[in-house]
Batch of 4 targets.
Target 1
Amino acid sequence: MPAYSEKSRRILALEFPSLAVDRIRRNRKRRGEVPPAELPLVVVAKIDNALQLTATDALAARHGLYSGLPLADARARVPALDVVEADETADRALIEAIADWCDRFTPLVALDLPSGLFLDITGCAHLFGGEATLLQSLCGFVRKQDIAVQAAIAGTTIAARALARGADGSIAQNGSEHEAVAPLPIMTFLQDEKIVYALQRAGLKTIGDVANRSSSELTARFGASFTFLLQQVLGQNAQPIVPRRPLPDYVAERRFAEPVATAEVILRTIASLASTLESLLEERGQGARRLEASFFRTDGAVRHIALDTGRPLRDAAQIAAYYAERLEVLADPVDPGYGFDLVRLSALATEPLAYQAADLEASQDEAEIAGLIDRLSARFGPERVTRFLSLDSHVPELAAAFCPAQRGRGPSLWPQMRQEGEAPRRPLHMLSPPERIDNTMADIPDGPPARFVWRRAAHRIVRAEGPERIAMEWWCDTEAKTRDYFQLEDDEGRRFWVYRDGLYYSDAEHPRWFMHGLFA
């Protein structure tokens, strides 16, 4: 694979100039709503305790309305307006959906909020017919979704953004960004209104005008951050983008000339991709710990289905079987719509996996159990297949916790609490939380109870063992009291595990008794 330097990086910038307006109209169209006829559409939000316009459609712009204008002033100019409240969450969701679709071109997709995207297409544009064809097909799809878009390609993110805003459809080769952006207005790369106003007052209206001034002069007047931003828009000091999704370690994908929709073809495709992924992982001695299948629909919708494994895995048959289990029981099935034109299988997390010679006398139980856990987790979800994890605590209810069974790569290390053949010191049935026992009577204050009432039933104790004193974790809970635990057996053979919360002669309050567990 060829190496690419920062100087050869290629960035495609997408700008959605009327995102909020387009979203509102798309939603109305889908719901079958009839908008007010010939009324200018404006989007408003409360800013500085006043309603201001944040977006306008073309008709409102022709009436002289613009973003930042107070709604009261807008109504004074145009009394009849179609006013809709801004919804930044919905706008963000729409951009995220477009970014999901753009993942088919490159995994390096970053958000440029509030209304743009960056795609790092370095080294991949030739797969789609070149940069011009890629730009045209991408913008064509977005516009078919009733979303206005402007796009451009350059060597840096800031240069590509400025060209998208001021010279839609342009492609600036590396090293030629200075000439491409020179005639553009300065607001195409700069959002600070105060700096824009100051530059315009000084007669600097284009990026070329600003670039002709010395760096020291600009830095002294506007700061080093402005100078750094100017260098980027001129094609210098390129910075890599921060992808919105983690980059996979290994990827296998298949594109279809005609969309596919049947479950049989989808499962066969996953099996084929798993075989390709197995070869990639085997070449590098790796196994996957987290897999993700991505299904790209022709209408732009994307579905991601992730699977975790309890141990490194690269066997194609097992991967295909796990996904067959998962797809079969999904509460929200993968809806193919008009079909999928791209299916991708990615290994998001990997670990070293080397072949080992099998011991002829070794048991296969561990491998079979790990496979069973993976199959159950694929069917029911990893959070529903759990195991106990030993924790470093003497407090009984804090000594263990539930965790996904796939977490970790071996049995949890539990402290040995008894010798072989010795009776258990802890009950298998623990109550959470411990239950209060009443009417406790003891022969001596510090001794075990001779009788008590629990769940409205009286119990007379014939045998007792203890106490086992456990001090609480005072660094976590300063109010916690020392406990004395006793193993008790009543006259009917039932065995209990109880404790006294607090000590006689030490605590101000009279100690209380609690039932914490039952021995089988």
Target 2
Amino acid sequence: MLLRPVALALLALTNGAVAAELTAPGSAISAVTVYPDRAQVSRSLTMELPAGSHTLLVEQLPVSLNQESLRVSGSGTAAVRISAVDLRPVYLTAAANERQRQLQQQLTELRDQEAGLQARQIALDSQSAFINALVASPAPSDGKALPALSPEQWPLALQAIGQGMRDIGEQRVKLAAEQRQLAERIAVVEAELNQMAGDQRATLTAAIHLETRGGSSSFKLDYQLPGARWAPVYDANLDTAKQQLAVTTAAYVQQATGEDWAGVALILATARPSAGTSAPELSPWWIDFAPVDDGRGRSAKAAYSPAPVASSMEMADSLMMERKKEVMEEEIAIDVAALQSADFIAEYQVVGKVTVAANNSRQRFVLAEQQFPVSLSLRAVPRLDPHAYLYATLSYAGKAPLLPGEWRLSRNGAYIGSRVDPLLRPGAERLLAFGVDDAVTLSYDQLADEKGESGLISKDSTLERRYRVTAESGHSKAVPLTLLDQLPVAQNEQIRVELLKESKAPSQTDVDDQKGVLAWELELKPGSKAQLDFGYRISYPGKGPLIGL
């Protein structure tokens, strides 16, 4: 018989008829969607329902379940009407299973044995005290003298006392060993009991109130849970010969939701359900003159109490801080998944059925493997470092944006290092560094450092410095080279800093918005040298020394 889909409407009012409670035979987690800060779980179950009003109980739901997110849907062979769904907390008892009862019985028996060993300890202490009393007090308490021992009897008395003390000593050693072993057994049983008690947290039971005409019905429960997250990681390997970058996008998934995900369909989504539903609202931003004291210790505007100044700005700053915190959490830093991409969200369907335990351990899943052509170039700061570094410019042509995360960089299969990068959108470019290029040698020489004076009437002090940078290539192909250096930046308008006219003009000034940083673009031809000459002049009034040089 074909199943006829039936909409299971969630109504606000419950049915007035008395409903019989039926416990579902068990629900299984069929699919999980993990977001960067939570998870949405789908449970499913199928069972035969008799006609009438019922309350279907779905047990063993995690207590951390977001109750507002719970949704119920399904289909069946006959019409089913749901009047309400509620959640009931369930607390497990101290002896909820047979193993606990066995351990408690075992602990009681061990405690009884412990009491028996303590009784033996008391008996030995009494025997030892009696012998010590005989040795220390040869006369009885009534003052009558004990029969004198003849010299022939002394060895026998000493032997008896010594043997008694030896027997007590041996029994003490044996008793101590038994007490130690018993204490270890008690500790093991108590530890297992404590562990079981800690594992017995409260659970939730979903009570689905419904009416049906009978037949087979299938239900699906969807709910969200905290304690789950995923973060991207990118393995990028540069093939310098082919000038290609192989990017493997993976995800680290970890969860401590309280329920294991065994054999589920796993989806990793870029959406953030916790980010809110709407943009913040702005309130009036008041400004005014500062209050003026009227001379009597009172403010002239004391009677005027506007709204707190810049309260809306403080709210905006707070929102920005929260967003920065979220970005940092994302950057904290997984067969290929199917990508479903839209303008506002991307979802990766992990291949096959997977298992993720609720122990908060990281599990890696591969999401995508892509190849991109790149352009290679060199960058060097010879003033600070005598090496040239290899860079690859990636023009990202993927379908979905790459979330903020860790990039692990390799060159020709050799690991170079890692970095954390922000979001990369389709069509954007990213400059990636791949370490020192040993095929290029650099030299940085200071040609002049001259002090002097200028001006006819008022003398200005001057300082001129000239430098030469030489780069030699061992590559078989021409490679673009960017040389970076800097000029001093004056913090006083009387100090003038200028590039010498004979210097090669820089390709860019104030690189990356850094005052005084200059860049020269050169082409480093194979087996040849490139040379850069530049210098600067500093002029300032008087002869006082300058700081910072």
Target 3
Amino acid sequence: MSDPLVDRRYLIPFRSPLLPQIFTDVLVVGGGVAGLRAALAASEHGDVILLAKAPLEVSSTAWAQGGIAAAVDPDDTPEAHADDTVQAGSGLNDTDAVRLLTAEAAPEIERLIEWGMRLDADAAGEVELGREGGHRRRRILHTDGDATGRELTRTLSAQAKRSPAIRVFEQCFALDLLSSQRGDGRVLGAITHHPRFGLQLIWAKATILASGGLGQVFRETTNPRVATGDGVAMAWRAGASVADLEFVQFHPTVLYVAGATRALISEAVRGEGAWLVDREGRRFMQDAHPMGELAPRDVVSRTIAQTLRRTADSNVWLDLRPIGAARFAARFPGLDRLVRSFGLDPAIDRVPVQPAAHYSVGGARTDLDGRCDLPGLFACGEAAASGVHGANRLASNSLLEGLVFGARAGHAAAAQPEVTPERIIAEVATSPRAELDLADVRSSLRSAMWHNAGVLRAGNRLEDLLDMLDFWSRYSLDKIFDDPEGWETQNQIAAATLVARAARWRCETRGTHAREDFPERRAEFACRASWQRDREAPATFGSVAAEESA
């Protein structure tokens, strides 16, 4: 049987001479921290178009409650930060990428301050540093306790809009990458859709994918509606290698109240002293890891899932009383308002929580400057597999990764040679198969992914999941849609299938990837894996870092 993921190259049929054409030096797809930082770096060298399929304030970055990790305290060092990053990464980190991340953290923070970003400080004006899971020192910078992402988005977007070299196209959807027909796979830009201007071709000498993650392929997620895996799906269709997709991080503490959105309860709350307890009030993390509630996120999420299986409850509880109601309200004003809006008093009540999909470690495989293995294509942030996180992202390293590797990708992309527009033709036959309701497909897909590729996985459930995804692929990927809802659904199917295939292949438990049928690490999987169109088996690469200590 043919593979629907491989059979289809472009999402729509078109002939380029009939579409409006725009030219720029660098095209950035994505308006979160990585995309904004890449655009700012690239704009130092030429013209940039920044595409965001929603307003800039609607992104995973803008939603981020957690802070930015950086060794800025005199008693801290980039090396100590790197050690914690590798420890959390279960041995699969690219150590060169980790060293770059932690060494360039402080300069990026200084630059943000110069651009006007506010950071929490004490009465003497000294920046306050918090602690989160996996960090052995206080090195997390916040704004208003739990509004770091919103302030970071404000700072970067204001800077981008002030730049005469950057054009920001909000609510503009990138359907697919334009690829050269000359045999080298060079990426020449993208096909886009704007609700006012319709389909357009944007030609660029370099294209940067910074479109965020794929959290919306799971029923329970902290991600905004826009996180539909567009970047990894586009990279895959174009022929780029994608890697590390089995490693999806589940945030341990998401508000679980009937009828409520799955609002994230920042890890910094546990950093300030909150406890995780079962229905009997017992602190179950104390027996699971020496760091207790501050263990790496994969350990906490897995322990919660196992506790829920044991107790048959739908959630565990976060006990805020060790922090104190007054301290909680002062430190986390947004969260205090949130829990009180559901009738919960931090001085008395425990807050019901459970894990939810939060961060995709994998994406388009890149080098240290964000280059993918197709000429002209770059990726950064959550859309990329830089290797910096290994098998599990250390808390508050994601905003930092977007800053550091977004800047590197932007500078490198601007140095690409000019491109010559080509005649791009895609002919897609009308599908003879029956129609499926897109809303039903998305709902069923997200539920199937949550139950079969969630916190706890097993080979038989992954096989069943792939059968379901194959069915949805055959009846959805062969269709021609003319609106973002259809294109997003196709991207969700592609991204979910790639996650499930990678999870089935990795027959071990490591980092965020927990296989109940293979509960231990296995030496033959002490490597990273990349996948590519027209190649059934993955290519393995990378050396294990700190295997015994992780």
Target 4
Amino acid sequence: MIPRSGVRNNLFNAQDLRRIRALGLRPSDVKKQLEAYRRGFRSLTLVRPCVPGDGIRSLSPAERRRLIRLYDAEASGHKMVKFVPASGAASRMFAGWYAAADRGTFGNDGLDRSFFRDLDRMPFVSLLKQNDGTRRMLRKKDVRAVLQSILLPDGLNFSGLPKALISFHAYRGGEVRTALEEHLREAADLIADRRGVCRLHFTVSAEHVQPVKSFLRLMVPRLEESCGVRFHVDLSLQSPSTSIVAADGQSRPFRDEDGGLVFRPGGHGALLQNLQAIDADLIFVKNIDNISPESLQKKILPCKKALGGLMIETRRQVYSCLRQLEQKSLSLPDLQAISEFCRDALSADFPKEFHKLAAREKKQWLFRRLNRPLRVCGMVKNEGEPGGGPFWVLEKDQSRTLQIVESAHVDFSLPQQAGIWSSASYFNPVDMVCCTKNYRGGKFILEDFVNRDAYLISPKTRKGRELLAQELPGLWNGGMALWNTVFVELPLAVFNPVKTVYDLLRPQHRTGRAFKSSSAGTGPAKRPAR
């Protein structure tokens, strides 16, 4: 039985302690994790969804052009990095195909015929047809053999690759591009500096480091020649010290069949350490699977520049306000102007008694409110995609803040909260620009701006046994909860995710010869919710 005061002091044996230290953790860290299981996670309190004019900024055509001009004029003078979480394996993309490979069928002749029709429109079909044996399998409509040639190491090995190395797009002339290559090409048009240097940072899993490095060694020289830039590409791993111990139903350490502690990855919130390590003025953040073919990239590029221009403008204004607040004397009109900027540009919710504070106390409050990391986040109209969205959230001190909220943080047993969630009309595509430096050029300690109560606990199974798993506050959810936040409306065209292989058949992902040859075909089935 766990004492009311917390987790027992004698939970760990010598083997446990060695394992804990090998991960870069301390026993006290693991005890805190177990305490979190005991407390359970807290739901967020939604006030209302964000909409244009109330939490989301809509850019007029004139504003958009002005911000693009600002970005074109000034961005190359900043050190910029594109940060792409790319740790995910591609196996989830092909979940439905694994079972069919085992059975040798999708269930009946009609579904099997549909599979081959869809396969003929996939961007990677030309790679399959390069092999004589696979061509024979395709002619014979051998479901098992064809799927094995796609998924297994003897073939394309998609089951063993990261999503970054999956062929996403086919072009006229037979060219096939991976998600990683498309991200490099997009970055070349967006974040090259004055010297033509284009910096990217990908987070990858340990087992995928070598395949990604091999691909980059082959691809980067070709792309540098065709794009006219020099790529600096860094890779990083999720730190083992962000692992979290699994627990049983009584919040005790879950142990494997040999009696050892079971640790699990801390979720994408663990990537906050990777983000912390990046030295840049502007950091563009985008998921590996949200990438478009070249023709659509060109149309989306002005949206990206407008997002970057808004960051440059907002950051300049924040820095200017902070430097004014450092001065010993500040006029009342200047103090009022800074307050209005916080309210209008950063959606700051002021204390009810703010107007009664002395000038010195107002300056202190404004300085604390402004001196934080800054993020400018694109938001798109929600057309049924699963995932988080922008909301006004009620904090413990009764203030209201802008937050990106996932459904897992909503208490749907409360009708009011369920109603607020269901009334939301905007979606988070994870398309943002971040500034992690303060007005003096130093780096913020990002851990200081995390809502530590925003972790999640969910039931899982391991070899048939039930356990509880905990995730750190999400990178762009609780991990950035205390940042200064600007939401801006972007067109839906910027959001083109690939969660299942059939998403590659969406019109946004088909271009050139592949798009023309299949224009009369049926579209892919609607992607199931995550």
